[in-house]
User: Fold these one by one.
Assistant:
Number 1:
Amino acid sequence: MPNVMTEAKLFACNQSTELAKKIAESYGAPLGNVITSTYSDGEFQPSYEESIRGSRVFIIGSTHPSSDNLMEMLLMLDAAKRASARHITAVIPYYGWARQDRKDKPRVPIAAKLIAKMLETAGATRIITMDLHADQIQGFFEKPVDHLYASTVFMPYLKGLGLDDLTIASPDMGGSKRAYAYSKALESDVVICYKQRAKANVISHMELIGDVTNKNVVLVDDLVDTAGTLTKAADLMIERGAKSVRAICTHPVLSGEAYDKVENSKLLELIVTDSIPLKKESRKIRVVSCADLFAEVMNRVHQNRSISSQFIM
């Protein structure tokens, strides 16, 4: 008998329902029916309410804290495996816990590696994610990983601003590679912030490497958490003579007092994707959707077509 490609089926984890709806609309397929039963103590159980036997299944959900988000993805993967899905792709726009990608001091976990093993054990046969905190996290998996770049959606927005004297900035030394990639595509200068931390999320000192006098600066980073680094960098650059400072951050974690810090900072705007839903609206935060990017890559994966054309950097 000829091998007929079955229709792909898309499902959403609760934390990413809005993004999953946009992806499904762009993909051209409805979201599948999943119901979640919850016990009085908070334990929950997802259930596929349609057959997925022999299908390619895409499960869409970011794994940012709380840990319930990761647990839901794991349960969805396990249920799909036990329901005899042929291919099970975990679509994780934001791969949470990725900042724990190495032992930076004795007696700590490497959570990013642990979660990779958990996803594979649960049943994932492929991972699609975007802007990992560290590229080498791909090596934690034994299954194929499609690592997408948000530059695909950010670059058209940046070019549309038509900024003169554009300078790309990295808020720390670790993001210099990302900043150089943007600057190469935009043919702009690069500056880098050097920071020292007193402890996690607390900056003790920051210096600027490079000149931003009369420049329109765009800070680029993979995520914004407390917004301490970004807002401190923006204030420093305005002090050093920058005309304007914007920030592009793929994943809007935005915890603690982040919203207030952004509102009260010298940042003109903070541009993010919808990999994580915003907790509230802000006049300075602009969301650029990554739904079309994921939908296109998922479509190409299902049809066994190359996805290399989807990478700007």
Note: DSSP finds eight helices and 14 strands in the chain.
Number 2:
Amino acid sequence: MLPFVADLPPLEQERIVCSISSAVKYEVPANIVLAVAEKEGGKPGQWVRNTNGTHDVGPMQFNTAYLRELERYGITANDVAAAGCYSFDLAAWRLRMHLRNDKGDIWTRAANYHSRTPQFNAIYRADLMKKAAKWADWLEARFVTLDVIKEGAAPSTPTMQAPAPTAAAATQAAQPTPPRSTRTGAYVPRQITFTSANE
């Protein structure tokens, strides 16, 4: 368990830990996965009915229309509705596909997670950028991160040195802090890196 989420409510712990582990597993900027998870705001077992008759399911709010496409792989709505990291893994895999294969800037591609329709994408994109900037600062304070856009970028050095905080402090610490810059165009996605002591 990550020490800085130990005192958080279980649902919040799961969201943070699963988002980070899925981002590392699928090589997607962790702050983008965290931002999508926060934006979707789903819960295990949750089914939200949409006006078009579909449902958004589970922690990462997968639409049942999209899930019909995944049935051929044995992926069901119950799989993504369940507690645990599976829905976060599937979301990171899907984000990876959007980031690698879609057209547009990184934010438009990431917002395709929600919708490719320009008007819906633009709304989601704007909020996603704000949330991702806050999560980037939160991650940078706790992990060695790497600017994924800048070739040859040096890893960052975490600034948080404290042991597990109290419950009140942990709740506050787990909330993304305001970004250092309000210019979202200046923000760069962060990849978590792991290096051994021998490197």
Note: The first helix runs from residue 10 to 26.
Number 3:
Amino acid sequence: MEKKEDVYRTVTKPSPEILYKDRKSKFYAQIHPIASEDDVKPIVEELRKKYHTANHVCYAWQLGTENPMYRANDDGEPNNSAGMPIYGQIQSFDVTNVLITVTRIFGGTKLGVGGLIQAYKTAAQMALENAKIVKKTIKAKFRLQFGYPEMDKVMRIIKQKNLNIVSQKMELDCELVISVRMTESEETLQIFDEMQNVEISQLD
């Protein structure tokens, strides 16, 4: 049974760009996977170059699972008429580690604040509906340190519990970095903690 806190929804690659039109204004919307806030600026700058006649590149992003961070940017549109409606769709589709951009090319007719909110919301929704949303498991990482005599029993548990080895260093002593589902982290910590001559520490 999947536990809610163990799994999150995201995208692994940018979605196809969709076009939404309202009274001759064009809204190009796309969803992008991001790993940190630093990923946002280059994507937005790239869109400004691509659509050099665009009046606004509005966006919203969210990162993290337990205490997610988010930002919404109206890029010159009236306050909260663009970024927040886009962010509302991120919440509605329950996705994280994503950036949604909506690039507007003005068509000559003002839409009014209500019209803008609707247009940005709809464009973001269409981008999400066209994206391939995947489920990912939240993992915890641990470092194991032990001598060669302990190798067999450590490896046996890793195999039994189907744990994932992220990296290994075999020098005078052995060091493994393993990752486990967040919901199994306490049990894993306890198992290795009770083994003699094996040190386990959780990594950020």
Note: Residues 112-130 form the longest helix (19 residues).
Number 4:
Amino acid sequence: MTNQKSSRLVQQQIYRNGIFLSSDRLVPEEVAIAVSFGGTTHAVMMATPDDLEDFAIGFALTEGIIQTISDIETINIVAVDGGFDAQVTLKEQSRAQFHARRRHMMGPVGCGLCGIESIEQALRPVPQLQDANAQFMPKDIIDAMALLARQQKLNDATRAVHGAGFYLPEQGVVCVREDVGRHNALDKLAGALLRCSYGAGQGIVAVTSRLSVEMVQKAAIIGVPLLAAISAPTQLAIETADKAGLTLVALVRGQEFDIYTHAERVLHL
């Protein structure tokens, strides 16, 4: 796999106590990452260039292109001018479904209904949570966010990236992924979970961002019963989580948090 450093030192001028000083600062890299299937570029995102195989897998999962890791034949990360191309080869059945979907999305330019498909994709229904019996103590939510912060090595160094972590009761945060983009961090985590043996239905996903509807959609597709965030949710995120059977917890700060949907999954002390 071709990769590059996820951060670098830059020169800066800092103003402290009325004086300008020269200094160095570590900042995260942000490059273009293309995700291609069968030689066709499907999307290009600006992202941090590490854990790119996880990113490609998680993106394919949350976009509905694959269902399991076995749908993928190979992944190659290729350096290109300005970034990387995550080249994914799908197994035959998934490849046929992907090409059929691509053909369906192509329509005449300039027609009055051209945006319908993209709107439907943006507001796509999310799967219903399968493991409805998972329950957690308040301490689990608090610990998930605190442990995520402690394991964000890139953010410790740069203070400029989001994190997504997977927490299991009695085990703690067992997987963390970081990126300059909150969606990318969650996709990277989704890919990592798909590749390992952790059961998503028994844990918590904690994120260092606000809760938009896209974050809820991705969490529901991953199959996690509880999504916790350091910031607040949008109205559509709350509505979508409620329909999916997902417990949505926001504003996790210190020993406090707010529950917006399916509060029965969080046990009272």
Note: Confidence is low (pLDDT under 50) at residues 104-116.
